[in-house]
Amino acid sequence: MASVKEKKKSKATSKNEFSKSTYITWYETMLMMRKFEEKAGQLYGQQKIKGFCHLYIGQEACVAGAVSALEEGDKYITAYRDHAHPIALGTDPKRIMAELFAKETGISKGKGGSMHIFDKEHNFFGGHGIVGGQVPLGAGIAFAEKYNNTGKLCICYMGDGAVRQGAFHEALNIAMTMKIPVIFVIENNGYAMGTSVQRTSNVTGLDQLGAAYEMPSESVDGMSVIDVHHAVARAAERARKGDGPTLLEFRTY
Ligand SMILES: Cc1ncc(C[n+]2csc(CCOP(=O)(O)OP(=O)(O)O)c2C)c(N)n1
Ligand SMILES: [Mg+2]
Protein backbone atom coordinates (compact mmCIF):
# COMPACT_ATOMS: atom_id res chain seq x y z
CA MET A 1 0.00 0.00 0.00
CA ALA A 2 1.39 3.41 -0.89
CA SER A 3 1.18 6.13 1.74
CA VAL A 4 -0.97 9.22 1.32
CA LYS A 5 2.25 11.15 0.82
CA GLU A 6 3.54 8.97 -2.01
CA LYS A 7 0.30 9.11 -3.90
CA LYS A 8 -0.53 12.75 -3.24
CA LYS A 9 -0.33 14.10 -6.77
CA SER A 10 -3.22 16.47 -7.07
CA LYS A 11 -4.23 19.29 -4.77
CA ALA A 12 -7.79 20.39 -4.14
CA THR A 13 -8.84 22.78 -6.86
CA SER A 14 -11.84 24.08 -4.96
CA LYS A 15 -13.88 23.05 -1.95
CA ASN A 16 -14.68 19.34 -1.96
CA GLU A 17 -12.96 18.72 -5.29
CA PHE A 18 -10.24 16.14 -5.19
CA SER A 19 -8.81 13.77 -7.76
CA LYS A 20 -9.89 10.14 -7.92
CA SER A 21 -6.42 9.09 -6.75
CA THR A 22 -6.75 11.24 -3.61
CA TYR A 23 -10.06 9.59 -2.68
CA ILE A 24 -8.62 6.14 -3.33
CA THR A 25 -5.51 6.92 -1.28
CA TRP A 26 -7.65 8.17 1.63
CA TYR A 27 -9.74 5.01 1.44
CA GLU A 28 -6.74 2.67 1.22
CA THR A 29 -4.90 4.41 4.05
CA MET A 30 -7.89 4.45 6.39
CA LEU A 31 -8.70 0.84 5.57
CA MET A 32 -5.11 -0.18 6.34
CA MET A 33 -5.31 1.67 9.67
CA ARG A 34 -8.61 -0.05 10.51
CA LYS A 35 -7.40 -3.53 9.55
CA PHE A 36 -4.14 -3.02 11.46
CA GLU A 37 -6.01 -1.97 14.60
CA GLU A 38 -8.55 -4.79 14.36
CA LYS A 39 -5.69 -7.27 14.21
CA ALA A 40 -3.80 -5.54 17.04
CA GLY A 41 -6.97 -5.57 19.17
CA GLN A 42 -7.46 -9.27 18.51
CA LEU A 43 -3.85 -10.13 19.38
CA TYR A 44 -3.99 -7.96 22.50
CA GLY A 45 -7.14 -9.77 23.59
CA GLN A 46 -5.27 -13.05 23.15
CA GLN A 47 -2.48 -11.60 25.34
CA LYS A 48 0.03 -12.02 22.52
CA ILE A 49 0.71 -8.27 22.68
CA LYS A 50 1.81 -7.23 26.16
CA GLY A 51 1.65 -3.89 27.96
CA PHE A 52 -0.64 -1.15 26.67
CA CYS A 53 -2.38 -1.06 23.29
CA HIS A 54 -4.54 1.98 22.43
CA LEU A 55 -6.40 1.68 19.14
CA TYR A 56 -7.34 4.36 16.60
CA ILE A 57 -10.53 2.74 15.32
CA GLY A 58 -13.01 5.46 14.32
CA GLN A 59 -10.49 8.29 14.28
CA GLU A 60 -8.80 7.43 10.96
CA ALA A 61 -9.90 10.59 9.09
CA CYS A 62 -8.13 12.82 11.65
CA VAL A 63 -4.79 11.64 10.32
CA ALA A 64 -5.54 10.80 6.67
CA GLY A 65 -6.96 14.28 5.97
CA ALA A 66 -4.00 16.00 7.62
CA VAL A 67 -1.29 14.06 5.79
CA SER A 68 -2.88 14.86 2.43
CA ALA A 69 -2.93 18.57 3.32
CA LEU A 70 0.69 18.82 4.49
CA GLU A 71 4.07 18.70 2.76
CA GLU A 72 6.95 16.27 2.73
CA GLY A 73 9.24 17.24 5.61
CA ASP A 74 6.50 18.50 7.93
CA LYS A 75 6.77 16.89 11.37
CA TYR A 76 4.19 14.85 13.31
CA ILE A 77 3.90 14.11 16.99
CA THR A 78 1.08 12.60 19.03
CA ALA A 79 0.12 10.86 22.27
CA TYR A 80 0.05 7.12 22.89
CA ARG A 81 -2.74 6.40 20.34
CA ASP A 82 -0.05 6.29 17.72
CA HIS A 83 -0.25 3.37 15.28
CA ALA A 84 -2.18 5.21 12.54
CA HIS A 85 0.04 8.27 12.08
CA PRO A 86 3.13 6.34 10.89
CA ILE A 87 0.95 4.11 8.68
CA ALA A 88 -0.24 7.22 6.83
CA LEU A 89 3.29 8.61 6.64
CA GLY A 90 4.67 5.52 4.93
CA THR A 91 6.17 3.45 7.74
CA ASP A 92 5.99 -0.26 6.94
CA PRO A 93 3.04 -1.53 9.05
CA LYS A 94 5.02 -4.74 9.66
CA ARG A 95 7.61 -2.75 11.61
CA ILE A 96 4.86 -1.20 13.73
CA MET A 97 3.37 -4.63 14.41
CA ALA A 98 6.84 -5.96 15.27
CA GLU A 99 7.13 -3.13 17.80
CA LEU A 100 3.88 -4.22 19.44
CA PHE A 101 5.50 -7.63 19.88
CA ALA A 102 8.62 -5.99 21.39
CA LYS A 103 10.78 -7.42 18.61
CA GLU A 104 14.19 -6.04 17.68
CA THR A 105 12.88 -5.53 14.15
CA GLY A 106 10.25 -3.13 15.51
CA ILE A 107 10.32 0.51 14.44
CA SER A 108 11.58 1.49 17.94
CA LYS A 109 13.83 -1.58 18.14
CA GLY A 110 11.31 -3.27 20.43
CA LYS A 111 12.13 -0.91 23.29
CA GLY A 112 9.04 1.29 23.05
CA GLY A 113 5.98 -0.84 22.45
CA SER A 114 2.57 0.42 21.38
CA MET A 115 2.79 3.84 23.05
CA HIS A 116 6.26 4.74 21.73
CA ILE A 117 6.30 4.33 17.98
CA PHE A 118 8.99 6.58 16.46
CA ASP A 119 10.10 6.93 12.83
CA LYS A 120 12.33 9.93 12.21
CA GLU A 121 12.83 8.91 8.57
CA HIS A 122 9.11 9.49 8.03
CA ASN A 123 9.03 12.60 10.25
CA PHE A 124 7.14 10.90 13.05
CA PHE A 125 8.33 11.94 16.53
CA GLY A 126 6.20 9.60 18.65
CA GLY A 127 4.30 8.16 20.48
CA HIS A 128 4.13 9.72 24.08
CA GLY A 129 2.58 8.10 27.14
CA ILE A 130 2.46 11.12 29.44
CA VAL A 131 -0.84 12.88 28.77
CA GLY A 132 0.01 16.33 27.36
CA GLY A 133 3.76 15.61 27.41
CA GLN A 134 4.08 15.87 23.64
CA VAL A 135 2.46 19.32 23.42
CA PRO A 136 5.51 21.40 24.44
CA LEU A 137 7.69 18.96 22.46
CA GLY A 138 5.59 19.65 19.35
CA ALA A 139 5.98 23.40 19.87
CA GLY A 140 9.73 22.85 20.28
CA ILE A 141 10.02 20.85 17.06
CA ALA A 142 8.14 23.61 15.24
CA PHE A 143 10.40 26.24 16.84
CA ALA A 144 13.42 24.40 15.37
CA GLU A 145 11.83 24.62 11.91
CA LYS A 146 11.36 28.36 12.33
CA TYR A 147 14.87 28.85 13.77
CA ASN A 148 16.42 26.90 10.89
CA ASN A 149 14.19 28.66 8.36
CA THR A 150 13.07 25.41 6.72
CA GLY A 151 9.54 26.49 5.78
CA LYS A 152 8.26 23.30 7.46
CA LEU A 153 5.88 22.98 10.39
CA CYS A 154 4.90 20.56 13.10
CA ILE A 155 1.42 19.14 13.63
CA CYS A 156 0.92 18.16 17.25
CA TYR A 157 -1.96 15.84 18.17
CA MET A 158 -3.42 15.34 21.62
CA GLY A 159 -6.52 13.93 23.25
CA ASP A 160 -9.21 16.00 24.95
CA GLY A 161 -7.71 14.93 28.29
CA ALA A 162 -4.44 16.73 27.51
CA VAL A 163 -6.03 20.18 27.40
CA ARG A 164 -6.53 20.11 31.18
CA GLN A 165 -2.75 19.93 31.68
CA GLY A 166 -0.78 23.07 32.43
CA ALA A 167 1.81 22.21 29.77
CA PHE A 168 -0.88 22.58 27.08
CA HIS A 169 -1.54 26.20 28.10
CA GLU A 170 2.15 27.02 28.46
CA ALA A 171 2.82 25.66 24.97
CA LEU A 172 -0.07 27.61 23.42
CA ASN A 173 1.06 30.80 25.09
CA ILE A 174 4.68 30.62 23.94
CA ALA A 175 3.76 29.36 20.46
CA MET A 176 1.44 32.30 19.85
CA THR A 177 3.84 34.82 21.37
CA MET A 178 6.73 33.61 19.19
CA LYS A 179 4.54 32.82 16.12
CA ILE A 180 5.81 29.26 16.00
CA PRO A 181 4.66 27.19 12.96
CA VAL A 182 2.74 24.55 14.88
CA ILE A 183 -0.76 23.14 14.37
CA PHE A 184 -2.26 21.97 17.66
CA VAL A 185 -4.88 19.28 17.06
CA ILE A 186 -7.20 18.19 19.84
CA GLU A 187 -8.81 14.86 19.01
CA ASN A 188 -11.97 15.32 21.03
CA ASN A 189 -13.44 11.83 21.28
CA GLY A 190 -15.57 12.87 24.25
CA TYR A 191 -13.66 10.98 26.92
CA ALA A 192 -10.35 10.85 28.75
CA MET A 193 -10.43 7.20 29.79
CA GLY A 194 -13.88 7.06 31.44
CA THR A 195 -14.14 10.78 32.18
CA SER A 196 -16.34 12.83 29.87
CA VAL A 197 -15.31 16.29 28.69
CA GLN A 198 -18.33 17.76 30.53
CA ARG A 199 -17.01 16.49 33.85
CA THR A 200 -13.60 18.11 33.54
CA SER A 201 -14.44 21.71 32.67
CA ASN A 202 -17.13 24.32 32.21
CA VAL A 203 -15.64 24.84 28.73
CA THR A 204 -16.59 21.88 26.52
CA GLY A 205 -16.03 23.44 23.08
CA LEU A 206 -12.31 22.84 23.06
CA ASP A 207 -11.55 25.20 20.17
CA GLN A 208 -12.50 28.00 22.63
CA LEU A 209 -9.30 27.34 24.56
CA GLY A 210 -7.30 29.23 21.93
CA ALA A 211 -9.15 32.47 22.68
CA ALA A 212 -7.05 33.34 25.74
CA TYR A 213 -4.00 33.49 23.46
CA GLU A 214 -5.82 35.06 20.49
CA MET A 215 -4.90 31.94 18.54
CA PRO A 216 -6.90 31.23 15.37
CA SER A 217 -9.05 28.23 16.32
CA GLU A 218 -11.61 26.02 14.63
CA SER A 219 -13.88 23.16 15.51
CA VAL A 220 -13.89 20.56 12.74
CA ASP A 221 -15.88 17.41 11.95
CA GLY A 222 -13.11 14.89 12.58
CA MET A 223 -15.17 12.13 10.98
CA SER A 224 -14.89 13.90 7.60
CA VAL A 225 -11.54 13.43 5.87
CA ILE A 226 -12.45 16.32 3.56
CA ASP A 227 -13.18 18.78 6.39
CA VAL A 228 -9.98 17.72 8.15
CA HIS A 229 -7.96 18.26 4.97
CA HIS A 230 -9.34 21.78 4.44
CA ALA A 231 -8.86 22.83 8.07
CA VAL A 232 -5.26 21.59 8.16
CA ALA A 233 -4.53 23.22 4.80
CA ARG A 234 -5.76 26.58 6.15
CA ALA A 235 -3.68 26.19 9.32
CA ALA A 236 -0.60 25.20 7.32
CA GLU A 237 -0.93 28.22 5.08
CA ARG A 238 -1.00 30.49 8.13
CA ALA A 239 2.01 28.74 9.67
CA ARG A 240 4.08 28.99 6.48
CA LYS A 241 3.22 32.68 6.07
CA GLY A 242 4.74 33.35 9.48
CA ASP A 243 1.44 33.92 11.28
CA GLY A 244 2.15 31.14 13.78
CA PRO A 245 -0.02 28.47 15.35
CA THR A 246 -3.60 27.31 14.92
CA LEU A 247 -5.72 25.30 17.32
CA LEU A 248 -8.01 22.70 15.72
CA GLU A 249 -10.58 20.67 17.60
CA PHE A 250 -11.42 17.51 15.65
CA ARG A 251 -14.72 16.12 16.90
CA THR A 252 -14.32 12.38 16.62
CA TYR A 253 -15.15 9.13 18.30
C1 LIG B 1 0.23 12.86 33.11
C2 LIG B 1 -0.64 11.66 33.03
N1 LIG B 1 -1.69 11.54 33.87
C3 LIG B 1 -2.49 10.46 33.79
C4 LIG B 1 -2.25 9.47 32.89
C5 LIG B 1 -3.17 8.26 32.80
N2 LIG B 1 -3.94 8.33 31.58
C6 LIG B 1 -3.66 7.53 30.54
S1 LIG B 1 -4.69 7.80 29.26
C7 LIG B 1 -5.54 8.99 30.07
C8 LIG B 1 -6.71 9.68 29.42
C9 LIG B 1 -6.33 10.56 28.27
O1 LIG B 1 -7.45 10.87 27.50
P1 LIG B 1 -7.37 11.72 26.19
O2 LIG B 1 -6.28 12.72 26.28
O3 LIG B 1 -8.74 12.26 25.92
O4 LIG B 1 -6.92 10.68 25.08
P2 LIG B 1 -7.75 9.50 24.40
O5 LIG B 1 -7.35 8.26 25.13
O6 LIG B 1 -9.20 9.80 24.50
O7 LIG B 1 -7.25 9.46 22.99
C10 LIG B 1 -5.02 9.16 31.34
C11 LIG B 1 -5.56 10.11 32.32
C12 LIG B 1 -1.13 9.62 32.03
N3 LIG B 1 -0.82 8.71 31.09
N4 LIG B 1 -0.36 10.74 32.10
MG1 LIG C 1 -10.20 11.54 24.65
Describe it.
There is one protein chain. With 253 residues, the protein is α/β, with parallel strands linked by helices. The chain has one domain: 3-Layer(aba) Sandwich (Rossmann fold). Helix content is 40%, strand content 12%. It has helices at residues 4-7, 20-45, 60-69, 84-89, 93-100, 134-147, 166-177, 197-200, 225-241, and strands at 75-77, 154-159, 182-188, 191-192, 195-196, 217-221, 246-251. The strands form two sheets. A five-stranded parallel sheet has the order 1-2-3-7-6, with helices on both faces. Strands 4-5 form a two-stranded antiparallel sheet. Helix 2 (20-45) runs antiparallel to helix 3 and helix 6 (134-147) packs parallel to helix 7 (166-177). It starts with a helix and ends with a strand. The model is unreliable at 6-13 (pLDDT under 50). The structure holds thiamine diphosphate and magnesium ion.
Biggest pleated-sheet summary = 5 strands, parallel
What name goes with the CATH superfamily? Answer: Thiamin diphosphate (ThDP)-binding fold, Pyr/PP domains
Q: What is the end-to-end distance?
A: 25 Å
Series of H and E elements: HHHEHHHEHEEEHEHE
Number of helices: 9
Helix-residue proportion: 25-40%
Bound small molecules, by name, code or SMILES, are: thiamine diphosphate, magnesium ion
Mean pLDDT: 95
Number of strands: 7
How many domain modules?
A: 1
Low-confidence stretches: 6-13
Specify Rg, calculated over alpha carbons.
Answer: 17 Å
